[in-house]
TrEMBL record:
Keyword Signal attached: yes
InterPro entries: DUF4861
Name of the protein this chain belongs to: DUF4861 domain-containing protein
Keywords: Signal
Span of the signal peptide: 1-20
The organism's place on the tree of life at top rank: Bacteria
Amino acid sequence: MNKKTICLSLMALTNTALMAQNVLNVEVSNPSKSRKTAAPVIICLQDHTDTRSALVTKNGVEIASQLDDINGDGIYDELCFVTDIDKKETQNFTVELSNSGKPRKYKSGVYAEMLLPNKKIKEKNKQNLFISSLTVENGSNPYSAVHHHGPAFENEFIAFRLYFDHRQTVDMYGKYHKGLEIQKTQFYPDKQQLASGFGNDVLWVGNSFGLGAMRGWNGKEPCMLEDVDYRTMAIVSKGPVRSIVKVADQGWNTMNEGKEKIDMTTLYILYSGRRDCFVDVKFNKNVPDYKFATGIINVKNSVEFNDKKGLRGCWGTDWPVALKDSAGHKPETVGLGIYIPQGNIINELPADKDNYPYVVGTPTDSFKYNITFGSDNEDFGYHSSKEWFSYLKEWKEDISHDLKIKVSKK
């Protein structure tokens, strides 16, 4: 071997070392009594802040993964991927973290977008002024100034949009067939798209919670987020494994009597392969004396399911738009669900004309819950209250038992 060959070999070894500085073994176990599908595996990278790319393999086969900078400081906070895992099963993954390169690209199972309307383009499904974040001051209402009224995000099962105003309502887009649609329809499918089987907005949410919007509580009723110093909505991530949408309310007067303003940041996290959305709420301090409200809309003529242990749902039929705009639309049948850990429920309230509500709180600075929905239009979903409520029970069993994740250096 000549001197030049030796130098090249040493360079190759050096580059390999740089590109795979940290090789981890990730042991994932399912402690529950049922199989989990598309179960999220999240690896915190606080000890690997120089990570620029990652490779995840199982039995030598590469699987899709994702690096996320959640707080926007330019450093990846988490690595995530999903796995199907049987009850009581343990799986092992190899994770190679590199301090060079860029995140690997995979076919995405999710999508997210936020846009400003382009007045030069008449078609509502062909807008092109994409933005990743928008912050407004108190008194500003960008609801009508942002396309589809706020950020939209989806996976192959379901799609949502968040209202960029004091309601911050979670609205729903139902599908006929599995697949990603929002990039093509932008929440407003045209006649040709509807004729070819694209989905559409399936529920008129008005001033209700929609599907699990967070609100204040003044001791008598839910309060919308009207008194906020600054409101931000942002696309944190758009795949390939999960989309993350952030809502930040700085200087929020929650209407809790005598309490100072607080900051609240809510992350809506949607994974590929799942019918539910994870809601992660974070405050700027511990809030043991504050009360909040959330729940689901009381769909017209709906049947309620309630296990009195944090799981609540309904199945009903209503117009997807205001009645004055109902021409060309049909009534839509949907199933909704919310799961709130019992430790966060202060009071479960009876249904009113708008909602199935809860008063909630947390002794700490964080609060997590889950939301889910289905449309009767789906050729892959549920088509009766009996089927939907059976799914809700299985869903709670799934999300009530986290995977056990053990990370060690190889």
